[in-house]
Amino acid sequence: MGSTKEGLRVANYVEFDPDAAPQVALESGPEVVVPMAPGCNSASFRRDVTWIGIFKGSDWEFNLTPAQTAQECCTMCYQWEAPGCNGWLYVPGNSNTPTCNLISGYAGPNKTESCPNGCPDIQFSKDNR
Asked: Domain spans of the chain?
């Protein structure tokens, strides 16, 4: 699995179901190319982030889903139209916890056409700081 200029190579990508978290099926099958979202250039990603949340928020919803790369996690966030994705965190590792954390559906200030419910401020922690 690797990235291309056109998008991400993902095995059996599953389109978003509004009643479930977005997922990437890793079973064997045909490989498809998922277009990479414009904001998912790994050169601009923050590094060593260990936690993400809504600034001055509480009880936000999140979904843990598998992803092979940070670009894949980012792309799932951008493609998640309803309830909308506020932020994402990719934490690679060898654990039973899925690697991609997507925060969703939290209303906030700064309403725009692309974010009609607003865009809350995101806070994060880096390496035990």
From this structure: 7-126
